[in-house]
Amino acid sequence: MAELLQFVIAGLKSGSIYALVALGFTIVYAATGAINFAQGEFYMLGGMLGVWFVSLGLPVPVAALCAVVSAAAAGALFELAAVRPIAGGDPLRIIIVTIGGSVVLRQLALHLFGPDELTLASFTPGPSIRLFGAAIERQTLWIWALTLVAVVGLVILYRRTAFGKAMRATSLRRDAARLVGIDARAMVTASFALAAGLGALAGLAVTPLTQTAFDVGAGIGVKGFSAAILGGLGNPIAAVGGGLVLGLLESLAAGYLDPIYKDAISLIVLLAVLFLRPQGLLGGSGKEKV
Amino acid sequence: MSSRRARAIVIVISTLTIALLPLVVQDRFLLKIFTFVGLNALVVVGISLLFGYAGQVSLGHAGFVGLGAYTAAFLVARLDLPWLLAMVAAGLVTALGGMVLAVPSLRLKGHYLAMATLGFGELMTLGFKEADFVTGGVNGFSGVPFPSVGALVLDTPQQLYWLVWSVVGVALLLAGNIVASRPGRAMRALHGSELGAQASGVDVVGVKVRAFVLSATFAGLSGALYASIVGFISPSLFTTAASVTFLAMAVIGGSNSLAGPLLSVVLLTLLEYLDALVPGISRTTAEVIQAYQADIYGLAIIAVILFAPSGLAGMWRRTRSTV
Fold first, then answer.
1. How far apart are the C-alpha atoms of B139 and B127, rounded to whole Å?
2. Are the beta carbons of B212 and B224 closer than 8 angstroms?
3. B240 interfaces chain A, CB cutoff of 8 Å
4. B132 and chain A in contact, CB less than 8 A
5. Does A219 sit within 8 Å of B122, measured CB to CB?
6. Which segment of A78-82, B262-266, B315-319 scores lowest on mean pLDDT?
7. How far apart are alpha carbons A66 and A75 in whole angstroms?
8. What mean pLDDT, rounded, does chain B reach?
9. Is B84 on the interface with A (CB under 8 A)?
10. Structural domains of chain B ordered from first start
11. Is the dihedral of CA A273, B114, B58, B61 positive or negative?
12. pLDDT digits over B273-282, tens only?
């Protein structure tokens, strides 16, 4: 029983991380209809920038804020420089540009921060918390709390603020949104920034537990996308659900079957969903209109 | 001079240069580099059909290269099968892999397919690492014998160079015929507009599957040749980073062209070995270029998409039309 609980805790921990990355994919997809293949790199940037700001002597909360804001700025900059000039054109070109962007961001991190694995101290040091024979690391509580804050914040943003409503309007019907005076292009930039910030938050929160390096982005990108597509791309709540389900599946498969399944599960989920039900488990029929 | 005649002259000159190179270049290391250029070219010719002509993105072709390499290595080194048979088997296995991976492409839009191929590539890398009873795991697979047909063993750098470039030549002939005929036009129609192609009676499913199978087979053969030429393979050779490099070569080369991608493979592969090729270049310059190699690829594909969407081939076409 304690063992099962331990696996569930581990699953919900990585699941929350996947959920944040998946939200980033969902937000950009809603705004542009394209997949941002550089999404995982912002997760990497979050961790690396966090380590760097802490090494400058900033207290952890300030360093964390700086890291997330810088990553979001990098996301916006990337959109402005590389994606906006080709927006609305051949989707193939957006795919290639975001792939190029992921390579550039990874190399940039390599040149700036070096090839070594880096780590961060726990946000609040101290022993693990015992719960029915299972242990919860304090950092895991931070991950859950930050994920919850991010999701609730996102819901409030989308439902209660004019800015969020403008973003939703743009993703529903771009031309109609422009007719009522919404700057649709700015909304796309904002969605890249938001997605990058969420990814960075995930990468930052998990670094004390897993370490980070310049090349962790691609792997987490695949996992985040698996989570997003499991829920059906384009639905933020489903993306969070997809992340948690994927985290649980991984943790249970690694715990009860074999640790090598930990990395295989997300790839199998990804391929299975794409082959069998590309609109996701919760999505509609997904037929493309002419 | 008509453009047809110019084309013919360029083809004859480059074929002769490639064919006669080993008679001029005696250095073993240089010949090995030029052999690697051929191996990359084989992969990129396939990706050009798939990406440049049919408009389908693959981020998993290194997975096919690895699949071909491990299949051939295992059959020759562990099961003692004849080399030629192992090559055929590697080609068939990767063709089958290409067919399976083409299945989601039948109903998925571009970016889903790109993700599916990325997932496939990552899964293959994981498989190469974990299935150590076949692949030797992360330590790699060593002791693959040289190519041989009957009693004839090809083991000199010249012979290996000619072997690889003959295969590249056959692949280019095949690809050139395809793009100049009906299937090639169908691919281009698909690239332009899938619905439009469908409405004009193009068998969209068939075109995509064939492009996928052919490009996977080319990649698999390249891997199989690599294994028997170098003798050692390991999972780190067949990563997503390698897939991105192949795709970048095809993107930079340009769509709707075979010559463009071929030129880009030659230039980009040689860039990696610049210090061996240009005698005067300092060790540090070469090291800087190597450290920034991936940056060059990343920036180049962004620049190509933003400023010259049809790549090297497009630039060439433009200069010709303005003259």
1. 13
2. no
3. yes
4. no
5. yes
6. B315-319
7. 14
8. 85
9. no
10. 3-322 (1.10.3470)
11. negative
12. 877 777 777 7
